[in-house]
Amino acid sequence: MTFMEILNNMGVPLALLGAVLAALLSGIGSAIGVGMAGEAAAGALTEDPSKFGKVLILQLLPGTQGIYGLLIAFLTLSNIGILGGSADISFIKGLLYFCACLPMGFVGLWSAKSQARASVASINMLSRKPDQFGKSIILPAMVETYAVLALLVSLLAVANIGKLPL
Amino acid sequence: MPELYTYAAARVHALEPTLLNRQNLEQLLSAKTYEECLHVLRSLGWEGGTAEEILSLEAEKTWRLMEELLPEPELFQIFSLPADFNNAKAAVKSVVTGTKADRVFLPGGSVLPEQLLKAVEENDFSGLPEWIGVPLKEAQHILLSTKDGQMCDVKLDRAALEAIYREGGKSECALLKEYAELFVAAADLKIVQRAVLTGRPQPFLTEALAECRTLDIRRLIEASQSGMDGIEGYIVYTPYADAIPAMKAGASAFDKWRDDRIMSLIQGEKANPFTLGPVAAYYLARQNEISMVRIILSAKRNGLDTGDVQERLRVMYV
To answer: Could you tell me the pTM of the whole model?
Structure first.
């Protein structure tokens, strides 16, 4: 087997590694984030259980990155012959899939943790000023912008790599 | 990275709206009689029959909350040290003078008063933690050999300040470090203020003052030899320059300065959602409000002028 053949066989594993990273890093970020916000939510609800609905939304905000990561991973798997599509993926294409998955993985991890901090601060704000729910939800939601941007980049890239003549 | 106290911080932040604010204090002050004042207090959620019951119930509620939020008691030992050393003073005096130790012990200490009494009675301090066992043994020796109760107090008071400073230094929480620094510095300034007013000699100050980072004890003692002006000449170059008018005004004004300074130190914790800081801030805010309510109730009971009490009211946390 020549070096080029070995390299071309690496296409699918490389693309799979990208899919795994997208799901793994975003998932880790969301797990940390939802857990952290959950601690704050539990503290706030111990003193005032009537805020459950509002606090739950704030707790769940850092959970979206995990879902975005999963979406990118599914899309990649269905393009590289694991859940569908053709398994004939060259090394270059595999590398492109890998790169396409990275924005979601890294931005997902980082933004989920940052969003969790903002959510915790907002839960505390809501405890002190219950009438400021609107503002308290906007602040952590701003962090979501960057997770959505990363999702868009990963999504557009993964969806279109297959069309490239490589 | 310091440990996160997200749950505890969120819980105390949720409790902050229930703390008394300046308006509540004004409301209490405007009550015409002592009974009406108690009635207003009950309407604000402070339960209990007599004033003492109400105050001790609130103090107990705060300690219970702290125990619930912080399973490791050593995290909050800095706040139990004053009670421990007060109890140590009571124990040694009670045993040496042969008087019954009745209602002299404060709650909230980390060492049981019975343990302190037993150690002094049996002259065996090995069962006590070193930070209290060693100074207690020395205080007992001072009291037995000199019969000077004041020197015994000085010994234990200084040991308390040193223990508080050590605890603050050990803590990962920036607020507790700053609190310990301020607490010890303010205590030193108060000792010097009293010493100047009562004409205490220099050796007394050498025994009584505890070291801290923001005050040079040696220079402070030297400055105190020239009276209040001398102290002012030194303090003006320290972070406590704003204490000068209060020091000149007297003990009560100085206490207000110290308490207000502590409240201003903890204000920032209202926006801190993660560390031990908000929990410590809540505890200090509760102590402050309990002490304010005590002042108001005592004034109402004794028919003191509202204006005098108003002057003594501290800055509140909320």
So the answer is: 0.88
